[in-house]
Amino acid sequence: MNVKMTLNGEPFSAETPSDSLLVDVLRLNGFTGTKEGCGVGVCGACTVIVNEVPVASCIYLAALAQGQDVWTVEGLTTKDPALLDAFVEKEGMQCGICTPGQVVSAYALGIENPKASESEIREFMAGNLCRCTGYVTITESVRTYLASK
Amino acid sequence: MLISSPTSVEGALEELGNENTLAVGGGTSIALMLKNRLIEPDRLVLLNKVPTLSGIDERTSATVRIGATSTLLELMHSPLVNAALPMLSFASSRVGNPRVRSVATIGGAIIHGDPRQDLPPVLLSLGATAHIVGPSGERDVPLSEFFLGFMESAAGEDELVTEVTVPRVAGQRTHYTRFTPGSEDDYPTVGVAIAMTLDSEGTVRDARIALGGVDSTAILATEAAALLVGHRPSDELIAAAGQSAAEGANPSDDQRGSESYKRAMVDVWTRRTISACLAG
Amino acid sequence: MSRVDAALKASGRSRYVADFTLANMAYAAVARSEMAHARIVSIDTSAARGCPGVIAVFTAADVTATPYGRALVDTPLLARDKVRFVGERVAAVVAATRHEAEYAAAMIEVEYEPLDAVFTPSEALAPGAPAVHEQPWAYQGAAAKEGDPINLIHRGTHGSKEAVDAALASAAFVVDHHYTTQGVHQGYLEPQACIAEYISDEEVRIWLTTKAPYRVREMVGKCLDIDPKKIELEPITLGGDFGGKGSPQDAPLCTELSRKTGRPIKMTLRYSEDLTAANPRHPAEIDVRIGADEQGRIVAASMVANLNAGAYGAFTPSVPAPHGAVEIPSYRVPLFYSEANRVYTNTVPRGNMRAPGAPQGTFALESAMDELALVVGIEPAELRRRNLLVTGEADASHVHWIEHRGLETLEAALNAVVPIEPPEGWLYGRGISVYSRPTTSMASTSLRLTPVDDGCLRVETPLVETGTGSHTVLRQMLADQLGFAPQNIEIVGVSTNDLPRDAGAGASRVTAGFAAVVDVAAKAWMNRSRDEAIVVEVNEDSGVDVGSYTVQIAQVAVDPSTGQLKILELLNAVDVAAIINPLAFQMQIDGGATMGVGFATLENLDEADGQVWAANMGEYKLPSARDVPRYKTVKVPGAIGLGTANVKNIGESTTPPVAAAIANAVFDSTKCRIRDLPITAEKIYQALKGQQ
Ligand SMILES: Cc1cc2nc3c(=O)[nH]c(=O)nc-3n(C[C@H](O)[C@H](O)[C@H](O)COP(=O)(O)OP(=O)(O)OC[C@H]3O[C@@H](n4cnc5c(N)ncnc54)[C@H](O)[C@@H]3O)c2cc1C
Ligand code: FES
Ligand code: FES
Hints:
CATH superfamily of the largest domain in chain A: [2Fe-2S]-binding domain
Bound molecules: flavin-adenine dinucleotide, FE2/S2 (inorganic) cluster
Oligomer: heterotrimer
CATH architecture of the largest domain in chain A: Orthogonal Bundle
Number of domains of chain C: 3
CATH architecture of the largest domain in chain C: 2-Layer Sandwich
Strand content of chain A: 15-25%
Shape of chain A: globular
Strand order of the largest sheet of chain A: 2-1-5-3-4
Number of domains of chain A: 2
C-alpha cells in the first residue's frame, strides 16, 4: 500500500504493508519523535494530530491517514514554539519518553479547550501517562502553553 | 490484506460481500485485534469516506439520528445531542481518553461488544434503535435486541449499521454512573444508565435501567425498572429496585472486582442513580 | 535553571534505543513459553523458517549454553530442556523487519509436558515442593547449598531469634502480624530495547536500555566468552528506569544472534512482553513481631520476609541481610532479628525496583507500628516519637549515622497538616508513616573535562541520564565549584570505552557520587597545566554515613457503601541538605510518591496462577494525572550532606512509606486493617462488611 498524506505541512508518501499502524510508518521514516510505549492506546506516548484531533498512532491504521493532515511533535514544536518553550520553562519532564505525547496532547487541548481550568487540564491530560514526574510540572507546562495562546 | 475505501453505502456493502472482510469505523478495536492476531481479515472496508454514514440531525422532532461514523468527540460537542440527550454526550466524554474519543465511532462502539463499554447501557436506557443495511435489505433493530453476547451483535458480517436513532422524550430525566473505584482512567467496574419520565405528581410513568460490566453484554434491568413505574418511589421502593437489579446481574470475577462485589455495587449504584434521576 | 536536555526531549529529538537504526540491521523476536513449568518435548521451527523475511531461527541448541547473571549466574539465553515461567524465551527469530520476526515467532510450535508448579514462596518452601531448578546450588555464585530447601536462593539473617523470642515473651505489649504485597512493575514507559553489533571478538557494540553499562559489559562478556573491555556500551538516553534497567535483559541473546548471523540485531519488547518477562518487584510475605514496654518503648522486634524471586535469581537483589524488606532503620530496637528468604517460583524473574525491598518492608513495619500504638493505647505519632532514633544512637543493624533528624521531620509533618473535609457521607481518616534511608557513601564514577574555545567546558560522563536530571545536577555542581556559568558547560554522555568507570545509576547514589567526583575534579582543575583535558575518577567510600528521613501523612476519605477510597492529600515531610535543582528535586518527591500510590492502591500484575493477567497497560493501571492526590511538601532544611556540594539522597525516599500511610489512614477512618496490598475498594468493602 502506498500512503500519501500531508505530514507536518509537507507532502509525504511511503510504501508500507496494508496492515501497518501509523506509528510504524512515522518511525520507520525518521519521525522518531513519536514514541511507542504501551502499544494499546492507553499511555499517549504515540499521540499525533490527524485533521486537528489527537490520535493514538499505535492503534490507528495507516490506511486511515490516507490523504489526511498529520502533525507530529517535530512539526508542532516548529510551527508553535510556545509549546516547546512552555515545557522547557516548567520542566514538564524527566526521562522524556512521555514528553512528545504530552506536548502533542497539550496542542490538542489548545484546539479543543484553550481556556481549560486546572481540573480540565488534568482530565484531558489524564490519558497521557507519566511514570516519572507525578504530573505537577506537566500540568504547569500545559497551563503555561494555554496562557500563551 | 486488502483495503478498500468506498464512498457509498452500496459500495461498502459490495465490498463487505467478500470473504473474511471487516468494516472499519475508527478502527480502535480492529487495530488492537489485528496487532494481537485475534483477527486476520483478508480485507478491510474503511467507512470514513462514506458521507451518508456521518452527521447528527433531527430525523423528526421526536428522534435524533446519529450517523454510524459519528465520533464520540462529535457526540460530546454536538449542540443537538447536548440539548436532547445530555446523558449520551456525558457518557461519550468519559470513554477512554481524548485520542480514543476523537477516532472511535458510535457504530464501532455498539458493534465491538465488550460488556464494559459505556455507550451500550446508555443507548439501551435511552431506547435507541440501530438501522442495519445488508444484502437482503434494511431493518431496524432496537438495541434491546441488538446485543447478543460477548462481541456478538445482531449485525451480520456482511451488513452495515448505518445509523443509530434515539427517541427524544420531553421531560425525560437521565443519569449515567460509571463506577471506577481504581483508576478513573479505566473501564467502569459497574455502569448504570437510567432514563425515566415522571408526571407532575412525581409518579414514574416510564423507566429504563441498563447495566454495563455485569454480564456478557450490556443488559436492561427490566424488573427493577418495572418496580418503579406507577409509583412515587420511596426509599424502600428504591432499595427494592436496587436489589432486583443486583439479582438480575450476572457478573464474573476479574481484576475490577469479584462477582459478589460487582453484584453489591449494582445494588448501591442503581439506588444512587435512581435517586439522582429523581432529584433532577 | 533549565535542564540540559529539555528542548531535545520536548521536541522529540532525543534519541532513545528504539529510535536507532544501523546499516544492514536485522530484527529479532522471540517465542515465549505459555507454560509456567514444563519439560520441552520438541520445538517445531519449520513453519517459522518458511515465513517471509526470515533469516534464521534459533533454539537453545544453537546458542551458547553459558547462562548469565549478576551475583547468581542462572539465566539461559533461551530455555533449555524446560521452561520455568510463562513468558520465558524459548526460541528466537531473526528477520528483515520487526513485524516479520514477530509473525514468524508466533508460528513456532512447542510441545510441552507440564510439570507441577509453585507460585508463592510458601508453596515453594513447603516440603516436597516441585523443584524450579534441579540443582540450584550448582550455579556459579549460588548461595544455597545442597540440602537446603530446594527452592531457596538465599537466606539472610541478622541477630538472634532466641533472644528476640525471649524478650517478646516477657514484653508488656506485643503485636504479631502477617502482611503480603503483590507483584508490581517499574512502569517505565520505554519498553526494554537492545541493538547489538558483533563485528569480531575484538569489537562489539551495544545500544541497550540500561543504566549500568559497565556492569552489563562484564555480564555479556562472561556469558559469551568475550573480553568485556572489547564490548562497548554506547551512550543512550533512557526512558525511565526505576531499578528495572540494570540487568542486561536481552543483550546477551542479541549479541549472540549478531555473532551467528553477522548482522546488527535489534530487539524491542512489546510492552506486554515487558510486563510478563522483564524483572518486576518481588511480591513479599512478611511477618512482623514487635514488643514494647508499658510506655510503648520497643524492647525487641523481628521481621521475617519470604520474597518471591521468580524463576531465575540472577537479578534479585544480591546483598546479604539485612535486606530492605526486613530493615528497621528509624527506631531504637535493643534486640532485633531479621530474616529474608529469596525463593524460586514459577513466575516472572524479579529484579530491583525503586528502593528494593523497602516498599514491602515499610508497608509491613509501619502498619505494625500503628497496630502496636493501638494495643499500647497511645497515638500513632506518639509511639513514633518515643521510639525514633536520635543523633548518637545506632540503628537495629548497628549502623551509626552522622545525625538523625526523624523527630524534627515528624514534628514538621504534624505541624503542617491541615484537616480536609471529606465528601458528604464519607468517612475521614489520617495515617502516618516514617521511612529513612542512607545515602550511599560509595562513590564510583569518572569524568573528562576538556576546555573548549571561548571559556567553555566540555564534560564527558559515562553516567546514564535515567531521567532524574542527573546531567543537569552535574553541570550545576561543576559550575558552582569551577566558576563557570552553567550555560558554558556542555555535558556529554560517552561510551564505556571513553572513560574508566561508573557504578551505574541507582541506589540513590548518583548525586552523592557526583559530589565526590566534582570535588576531585575541582582540585585537579586548579592544578592542571593550561588547556589540557583532564580525566578524574573516584572509587572510594567516603566513610561518612548520612541518611534522610521522610514522614508522610495521608488524609483519606472512604465511601462506606462501596469501600471506595479517595486520597485527599499526601503530605511529604523530607529531611534535606542542599538542593541543587529544586524542580528536579520536587519531581523526585512527587514522582516517588505517585509510584507509592500506585503500589498501595492500584497496580497489580495479578499473577496468582503463574500467568500475568495484567499483561497490558489497559489492565496494569499506572496512576494517571486524575488519579494522583494533592501533594504537600514540607522540607526540613539544615541537614549534613556529602561533599562540598552538601547533598543527600531523595530519589528513593517517598515511595516506600506510602502504602502504610494509606493503610493506617484507612484504619483510622474505618477501623479496618488491610494487611494485603493493593488496598482496593473491594477489600475495604469486605472488611467493613465483616465488621457488621
Ligand atoms: C485505550 C482504549 C480505552 C477504551 N476505553 C473505553 C471506555 O472507557 N469505555 C468504552 O465504552 N469503551 C472504551 N474503549 C473501547 C472503544 O469504545 C471502542 O474501541 C470503540 O468504540 C470502537 O469504535 P471504532 O469506531 O474504533 O470501532 P472499529 O474498531 O472500527 O470497529 C469495531 C467493530 O465494529 C465493526 N464496525 C464498526 N463500524 C461498523 C458499522 N458502521 N457497521 C458494521 N460494523 C461496524 C467493526 O467491523 C468491528 O468489528 C476503549 C478503547 C481503547 C483502545
Ligand atoms: S503507545 Fe500508543 S497509546 Fe501508548
Ligand atoms: S518523563 Fe518519564 S515517563 Fe514522563
